[in-house]
Amino acid sequence: MRTSLLSLPDELLDLVVDQALGEYAPRLYKERQDTCRALSLVNKRVGAIAQPKLVEVVHAVVYTPLGFRAQLKPEQVPRRNCVRTLWLDGVGLNGSVNGFLSFAAVRDLRLTVFREVRLEDFGLLPEIRTLVLAQGHFSSNKPLVAPKLERLVLYQCSHSRPPRQNEGFTAAGCPSLRHLYLDVSHDGRPWPCSQDLLDQVDTLGSPLTDALRVRRSSHSALIVSGSVALDKVLFDLDFMDGVPDQPASRVRHLRVHADSDTWPSDWARLADNLVHRFPSLKALYLPLAVDASRVMLGRPVLEAVRKLVANCERARVVVVYEHALSADGPAEDRAAPHFEARSRRVKAERAAAAARRRRARRRAARGLCADGGIVRQDDARAGRAS
């Protein structure tokens, strides 16, 4: 008997449709929506599953400063309570600064080119898990309270707060936060993240230029010290900033971002300087587009990448092909699945080792107490005998 996807129950067919749509990323938004529309026309049953997903992910434009007509405005979005992922351009440039609050069910919120947004307003979204703020300005009067927030990205932003407010992001306000990416702020000051929040997260992200800036001045997006803390930081190298002239000894994990315009000479320069510029490097993350086992590369790029990989092997640096080209765009969430999985594993191993040490200390303490009791009993018998 021949079977087909249509023989699956609705729950499994829903998973198949999700798999066909693929992951959400701003660079893939149009492709995802086109696929969703095509699936909606397959038949009535598949269409009933695919059509609601058209409004689960929305990219809307609040205001276009150059005068271009916005294709979709937030007030035109149907069934806002069904939207799970929302990407808004131009919030606060002309009109409301908190229009996103009407999307109460949103789990993934990304604001780009925005102004005068209040940090505490994000805490009014009860289901928010991912928050990306890029190329804008926000203010705060108190720390963010978002109990379910798991990922936070601050990219090319500025933040104003009262002088008495030292912290805008704390472990108490964001107890579920596991992934934090901090670009250098416009004023150059470190972001107001509490130390317990930095200790809590599994991964930290920052541009490579920030790692170099720490040496030259006190301006930094991210202040961390110690090998344990640095081991969970993934630094981003953009070829536009160039390979550093001086050794970056703080860098243990490095992700290289490239695009279709990256020159072969950039790859060759990185290959020539990798060992000397990054003496503490453990892992190098490269775009999937330069994986020669999957993609046919031009001869100059192929030779440069092969040399880079060979130098990594000699230096015992792990090479991982993971992210797409232009994955460092303003609205991207900077996710690094391999690095995040590694960080979770290392964190669990350290917690298990600490638990073993505590148990050993307790056993040793009980042993001492037992030995002390035996000695006291022997002393008492000797006293009665005398």
Structure notes:
By secondary structure, the protein is an alpha/beta fold. It has 3 domains: 12-54, no CATH class; 56-194; 202-381, no CATH class. 33% of the residues lie in helices and 19% in strands. The chain contains 9 helices and 11 strands. It has helices spanning 10-21, 29-40, 44-50, 195-200, 208-216, 227-230, 264-277, 299-314, 337-385, and strands spanning 57-61, 85-89, 108-118, 130-139, 151-160, 179-182, 203-207, 233-238, 253-257, 283-287, 318-323. An 11-stranded parallel sheet has the order 1-2-3-4-5-6-7-8-9-10-11. The longest helix has 49 residues, at 337-385. The relative contact order is 0.07.
How many distinct helices?
A: 9
Average pLDDT number: 78
> What is the straight-line distance between the termini?
96 Å
Q: What is the helix content? A: 25-40%
- Major sheet attributes: 11 strands, parallel
H and E string: HHHEEEEEEHEHHEEHEHEH
Strand content: 15-25%
The counted number of beta strands is 11
Widest sheet: strand ordering: 1-2-3-4-5-6-7-8-9-10-11
Total domain units: 3
Low-confidence stretches: 214-220
Shape: globular
Q: How large, in whole angstroms, is the Cα Rg?
A: 26 Å
Please identify the structural class as seen in this structure.
alpha/beta
